[in-house]
Specification:
It comes from Eiseniibacteriota bacterium. This is HDOD domain-containing protein. It holds the Pfam family HDOD. Residues 26-214 form the HDOD domain. Helix content is 70%, strand content 0%. The chain is mostly helical. It has one domain (3-281): Hypothetical protein af1432 (Orthogonal Bundle), CATH 1.10.3210.10. Helix 7 (114-137) packs across helix 16 (271-281) and helix 9 (155-169) crosses helix 10. The longest helix has 24 residues, at 114-137. The radius of gyration is 19 Å and the shape is globular. It starts with a helix and ends with a helix.
């Protein structure tokens, strides 16, 4: 009976050692997506230049146009070119969608955990959409809100991948429940290091690290509160048996952000729009 706990402890200690020594072998963003991200935050970038970079990846370009023409963005008329999409939706929105599409294929792809990866990705997409809606409700800039919400749990699939590799070294196959528990425990630090390696904006890095302990965020505590709430809203939408509306409305972060019950009502009313975004981005 003691062999299994001993193996579990070895997996945990080995995982912690890799995190401590930064031996994580985290995935890198494709060059084209890294360039898109840099351009979408550059005041000097043009729609033509951004379109040119995106066109280097035809699969990404095609998927971006499909997303831009989806009900999630309510186009009045069909968008037929990337430059038109950038002009209609804005450079940052297009850049953030490009990152989202890339991250899905890059990180949420552990074959042995396909069902878990799909659930994690859908929650990430919903979190991103809700973070944007919270920012709008607060009448604050929505810049980076989508990315902050979308990437807050990006460390979970990365930890699951690490756990399976570590388990191989101790000669035991880790079960799905144990892998998910370890992912929950260690994803914030691993995720923060990942997005830092991707040269994400500082708010994205900090909210990834502190969204579960938003009061500890040194520079962006309100953004961390928004991201924490976006995660809870996403879970309420997709798994209401885990986070009921009563539990959601009791979240202190709403009051800390000066959001009133009617504001929460308005955010919850965006549920159908969020579902549309989840379906098209997934």
């Amino acid at each position: 009976m003691s062999a299994i706990p001993a193996a579990e402890d070895r997996i945990r200690r080995s995982l912690e050692a890799r995190i401590e020594t930064n031996q994580l072998e985290l995935p890198l963003l494709p060059t084209s997506v890294a360039q898109v991200l840099e351009l979408c935050y550059s005041p000097d970038a043009s729609a033509a230049k951004l379109s040119e970079v995106i066109h280097r990846d035809q699969a990404l370009a095609s998927h971006l146009l499909r997303v831009a023409n989806s009900p999630a963005y309510f186009p009045g008329t069909a968008i037929v070119s990337l430059q038109q999409a950038i002009s209609r939706l804005g450079q940052r929105t297009i850049g953030e969608i490009a990152v989202a599409l890339s991250v899905k294929g890059l990180v949420f792809n552990e074959r042995r955990f396909q069902s878990e990866m799909r659930s994690l990705w859908r929650q990430s997409a919903a979190s991103g959409a809700f973070a944007r809606e919270i920012a709008r409700t607060m009448r604050r800039s929505v810049d980076t809100a989508l990315l902050c919400g979308l990437l807050q749990n990006v460390g979970k699939p990365a930890v699951i991948h690490l756990v399976t590799k570590v388990a191989d070294t101790v000669g035991r196959e880790v079960d799905n429940e144990e892998a998910l528990e370890l992912a929950e425990e260690y994803h914030t630090e691993v995720g923060a290091r990942m997005v830092e390696g991707w040269s994400m904006p500082p708010a994205v890095i900090e909210t990834t690290r502190y969204h579960h302990h938003y009061a500890d965020a040194p520079t962006y505590p309100d953004e961390a509160r928004v991201v924490h709430l976006s995660d809870r809203l996403a879970e309420n939408l997709l798994s209401p048996q885990n986070v009921t509306e009563e539990m959601l409305r009791a979240e202190l972060a709403f009051a800390e952000l000066n959001l009133y019950p009617e504001d929460v009502d308005a955010i919850l009313a965006k549920g159908d729009d969020v579902r549309k975004f989840v379906e098209v981005i997934g």
